[in-house]
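New to this. Please check this protein:
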Amino acid sequence: MRQLRGVVVWIGLGVCCWAAPAAADDPATLPLIECRLEHPLHLTSIPARCGTLRVPLDPEHPREGSVDLKVAVVPALNRRSAAAPLFLLAGGPGQSAMQVYVALSSAFARINRNHAIVLLDQRGTGHSSLQSCEYPEDWQEPADPIPALRKATSDCVAKLGQRVRFYTTSVAVRDLNDMRMALGYDQIDLYGGSYGTRVAELFMRRYPAHVHAVILDGVTYPQQAIGAETPQDGERALNLIVARCMQTPDCAATYPQLPNELSALLQKFGPQKATVTIDDPNSGLPLDIEFNRRILNAALRLLSYSSTQASLLPALIHEAAHGKLRPLAAQSVMNMRQISDQLANGMQYSVICSEDEPFFAGNIDRAAMAKTYQGTDMVDALREICALWPRGPVDADLHAPLHSDIPTLLLSGEADPVTPPLDAERAAEGLTRHRHLILKGEGHGQLSTGCVPILAADFLDNAAPDKLDAGCLERHTPEPFFLSMTGPSP
């Protein structure tokens, strides 16, 4: 968790060009024009049709301001297909659907054969009235970061104004249905990743007749207060990564003291600090970093998100335990910057301060949290932020158990540091037609992993979770561990 800049994260990159805003007086005729979705490094350029839908800022008082929602539709390759379009619901909270798609478009390629992909930037993200502010970077924090956090939050609220309170999930789900109608779709499919699973679950609750099938990836369960269990989940994931190394002959032979080295690092960089000079990941110029507990914790947490990044952890921990802190520090800085660039923190705080933090009191075991490597930093920071942040509309049943017969595929990584498989099991308790797939050794977000793109497309084409042949997952193995800083064994 970034104590100042972010609290819940996933992945994504991208930008898009837009049509001029269109009035929504006739919701059945939303104008779309040809456009392209561009990767910021110009690695990908995807043809699409783009448009803008104007909706009320406050649905209960539609004359008091509006929000322009940006949408891109990637047509199905099979132009004769009558399959339901797939709406991509991004994570965070605070990610842009367009950014996620551009980064992961290859994972959706099989689905896109028969299904149009609809990319609606949720209000407050991407190009839909972005709600975001600058917070100090962690390595620039003073010894006591709380006063700086309070000032940055007060400045952010002053910049965004009280209208920021209308960027919650409950309002966004209304937007999603308005966009469905504006595009002329009767039934739709939903893919929700991480926080996007909450959006999908609420849409399933509100508009079940208009949902054909749902994929939930990195699943939150409706009763969950996001963040209340994150430190314990992160501890579990890190322990699984270390255990997997010790159970892998070449990794165990290369790093036989890995558990002890990790423990020593965590003990040292509680009270101690060290100044480290790295090459700035953006400019390449020398950057002085105060390597402390927050920097170490951020590196461990963010590198746990996928088996690809986790494959670096044993080597980085081993190097750091022997005094070579630069590689771990550089990874921490690079990952934190990428995350902060991808998340609209104003929208994120509106969601969490309205929907989650108010429920922490009855859900947090501070003693258990304090025993984890992340400790109570995140919930303490959120308490300070949410004391100043305006709270917005939340449906009374947002956190009620969900009961649905909509065909649903749930995807989990065995070593997910934020939404472990148990969360998906809790979400599935009220789903009468579901399938839960768990990928061995994997982290957060599975759509681009192994044979999952094929399984996801087959599921959406047939909407029969009980008939889905997932035998390919039995052959799946996570990324091998690096045995040196140059890579894994051949």
About this structure: The two ends are 34 Å apart (CA to CA). The CA atoms of residues 278 and 287 lie 5 Å apart. Confidence is low (pLDDT under 50) at residues 1-28.
